[in-house]
Amino acid sequence: MIGLPWVYALAGAFFAAYALIALQGRRFGNAAFWGLLALSMWAGDRIGDLGNGLLALALVALAGLGLMRRGQGEEVPSSERQTRAARHGNILFAIALVIPVTALAGTFLFKQFPALFEAKQATLLSLALGVLIALGIGLARLRAAPAVSLRQGARLMDSVGWAAILPQMLASLGAVFALAGVGDAVGTLIQAAIPDSLFGAVLAYGLGMALFTIVMGNAFAAFPVMVAAIGVPLLIRRYGGDPAVVCAIGMLAGFCGTLLTPMAANFNLVPAALLELKDEYGVIRRQVGTALPLLTVNIMLIYWLAFP
Amino acid sequence: MWVLLGIAVIAAGFLLRFNPLLVILASALVTGLAAGLGPVEILSAFGKAFNEARYVSIIWVVLPVVGLLEAYGLQERARGLIGRMRGATAGRFLAGYLLLRQALSAVGLTSVAGHPQTVRPLVAPIAEAAADRQAGGLDDKEREEIKAWAAATDNVGLFFGEDIFLAIGSILLIRGLLEQYGILLEPLALSVWAIPTAIAAFLIHGFRLWRLDRRLARKGGRG
Q: Quick one: chain A helix, strand, coil %, rounded to 5?
């Protein structure tokens, strides 16, 4: 059956190619970093928990000691890009759209053949398939050598750098937090600080969702804690609030917190690296003005809609 | 209560701008030690989770395609296209993208767009080109700001669209959690309550984009 291991094999192959390209450019830190990621993608299930831990430790050491740097001279000059853009025209957009269109079609199609494809992973599978199709069409139509796409991919990957594994590292930290009972400890703290009125409880619930999400970087981690501390005992049981409203909009109050935190790296820090912004918090700065008014709206919506 | 030290490490580390990967590992170590785990145990737990979360890093497989298209002039082509559309402004374009992203997410198509798939190759260069024309030239800082607007708009569209879909992770999480308290809810009952916030998100972010347009136009008028 075609499932995630196939996608990991593809990702591992790309990372291995980036490692070789970095080696060629004598950027040994980058070569080691991408090489270790290739190893993780290919053999992560075979090197054991401690092996994976040591691998993560090595990745952190390479990044923390500042051993990674960007390559030079891979970028095609602007005048050449202008000429190429004029020659190829809108076919460039068509190729760019192959990936989302394949992801869309595959998500529906793969679920029809559960014997052949792992249905749960339909979107990730079709995303990878879309990449392969787009590469095939692109290389053929643009008459480019496969090495060109790998070299350009390596250039972008090097510009993202160690930030590429930030989301995966944060997810792993979440697992350690869960093991250590961090959520329960926060819940105990919050329960001690709730004011004794309906509006006070709603306010503490909404703000608590956002604040705890800012700390954990993920509303999913904050939600069970806040529901256990305030949502169910106070809002739903004592004040008789509608559970659907309390929970659905409470989660969205948490999402406002996600817009504000560097802990939500894949949404806030990684795009800053990907877009080559000098200010790593540039994306968060643009989101503050939407997140704070929207958090206020969410708290008021819970107050008005859940307690008619 | 000592396990909360790990959160303090995270907050302090980010504030003092240490390398985030170092901060994360230090926080995991402190949290684990406070909970009475040994260093090897902590590293094993971290490694196990790291391996299980590999799917998070799969998104980078799109880079060879994005790199290839950029080398062949995708961004330049996007700029040329927007140059020929008279009424296109950065704010209007981003508001349109916001609506599209919310609508796609609301029907469960969250992975169709995203920062590597659509923002870097298409949305950011188009918004930048439109803003450049409105303002009659942008400096480096303004260019950065427009790119950041593109990334921020993608996030807002995703977060405040996806919960309208019945089978998204957060809706299933809510349902599963409430079941443990003996409260049974249909996914539809939850997802309809995501609609008011979705509308508010579009209005608030859209208003800010409209103000961005006004700011760019004022600068263009002066120059």
A: 80, 0, 20
